[in-house]
Automatic annotation (TrEMBL):
Keyword Transmembrane: no
Organism domain of life: Eukaryota
UniProt-listed GO biological process terms: cell-cell adhesion
A GO cellular component annotation in the UniProt record: membrane
Protein name per its UniProtKB record: (Mediterranean fruit fly) hypothetical protein
Organism lineage string: Eukaryota, Metazoa, Ecdysozoa, Arthropoda, Hexapoda
Length: 143
């Protein structure tokens, strides 16, 4: 799961952005995320790829210019996925509780609507793909 955390400040003169965290032992600091390639910063936006539960917590963005600075606090919560099901044409698939499914050696008989539903105690989301004429056509957001 990828997360974009924007930090926008309108200022003149132009501002410089700095992201940081306040974590025990500075574990999984912004610098660590950047150094390992799990995150990057683009025009003030913090982009975290493959968000993990350990990434949950407070992130701070400070925008600074010669006139002063302003700090924004953002709380990121990564909740554990508790239940994943896969369906084809509305019917539950065997082993549908797996986080991923892989279909190899696709044949014409595999055509249809594929759906993945992910749930936890707080929310749920879904993604669907339709396979038709030897290609997948995206019909909603991918998970």
């Amino acid at each position: 799961m990828r997360r974009l955390v924007p930090c926008v400040a309108y200022a003149n003169p132009k501002r410089v952005y700095r992201w940081h965290t306040k974590r025990p032992n500075n574990e999984e600091s912004i610098q660590h995320l950047l150094a390992t390639g799990r995150a990057k910063i683009k025009e003030g936006t913090l982009i975290i790829t493959a968000v993990d539960r350990s990434d949950s917590g407070a992130f701070f963005c400070t925008a600074t210019n010669s006139e002063g600075s302003e700090t924004l606090e953002v709380l990121l919560h990564r909740n554990h996925c508790q239940h994943t099901t896969h369906h084809t044409d509305g019917k539950s698939r065997q082993n549908s509780k797996l986080e991923h499914i892989r279909i190899t050696s696709i044949t014409k008989e595999d055509k249809g609507m594929y759906q993945c539903i992910v749930k936890n105690d707080l929310e749920s989301t879904q993604g669907t793909e339709r396979w038709h004429h030897n290609s997948f056509i995206n019909s909603s957001n991918k998970l």
